[in-house]
């Protein structure tokens, strides 16, 4: 079973305060139609790479594609003390479901959403994950970003509310960025492949 974890890109969609407003414009030619897209590297479901906060960090095109996908555990953190939850070490990726994705709708100003703190970011580093994803517009403050990105842990933000369907499960997480040179991130298409009813894999 394939679960789409990406939010739709459309006119009127939410965007992070201060970022360019996404715009899709139809251009009608004599016998065909094309569209122009105005997006930022952080439009919709997207990935942050080290260069986003680390000035000498790796840019998008310098990262091996294998870093964007892998075996993932979906942590159910909605309404819970995230520090009390057990994190497995037997997966490559941690996906955090906070419930913030339920707020996603056209016109949402992204003024209220869940994040993680510096202590939890350091725990993610100790666990050795290569990527962490969250269903919020931002995983945390600048210190949280720097803790993760300085350790070359990729960050996926704005995962869709479909993440709720697979909370507590182990899945194959697949995400691919656009092949843009020299940038700090990219919109991605993120999916989860659920192969069985596998849940928490343990330590």
Automatic annotation (TrEMBL):
Molecular function via GO: arylformamidase activity
InterPro entries in the cross-refs: KFase/CYL, KFase_sf
One Pfam family named in its UniProt record: Cyclase
Any single biological process term in GO: L-tryptophan catabolic process to kynurenine
UniProt protein name: Cyclase-related protein
């Amino acid at each position: 079973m394939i679960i789409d974890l990406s939010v739709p890109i459309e006119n009127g969609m939410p965007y992070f305060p201060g970022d360019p407003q996404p715009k899709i414009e139809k251009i009608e030619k004599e016998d065909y139609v094309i569209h122009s897209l105005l997006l930022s590297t952080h439009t919709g479901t997207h990935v942050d790479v080290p260069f986003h906060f680390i000035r000498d960090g790796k840019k998008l095109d310098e990262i091996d594609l294998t870093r964007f996908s892998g075996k993932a555990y979906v942590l159910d953190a909605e309404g819970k003390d995230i520090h009390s939850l057990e994190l497995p070490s037997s997966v490559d990726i941690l996906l955090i479901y906070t419930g913030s994705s339920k707020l996603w709708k056209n016109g949402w100003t992204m003024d209220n959403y869940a994040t993680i703190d510096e202590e939890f970011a350091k725990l993610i580093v100790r666990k050795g994950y290569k990527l962490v994803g969250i269903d919020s517009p931002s995983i945390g403050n600048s210190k949280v970003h720097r803790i993760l990105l300085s350790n070359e842990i990729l960050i996926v933000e704005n995962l869709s509310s479909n993440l709720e369907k697979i909370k507590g499960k182990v899945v194959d997480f697949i995400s691919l960025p656009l092949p843009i040179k020299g940038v700090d991130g990219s919109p991605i298409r993120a999916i989860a492949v659920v192969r069985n009813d596998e849940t928490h894999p343990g330590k």
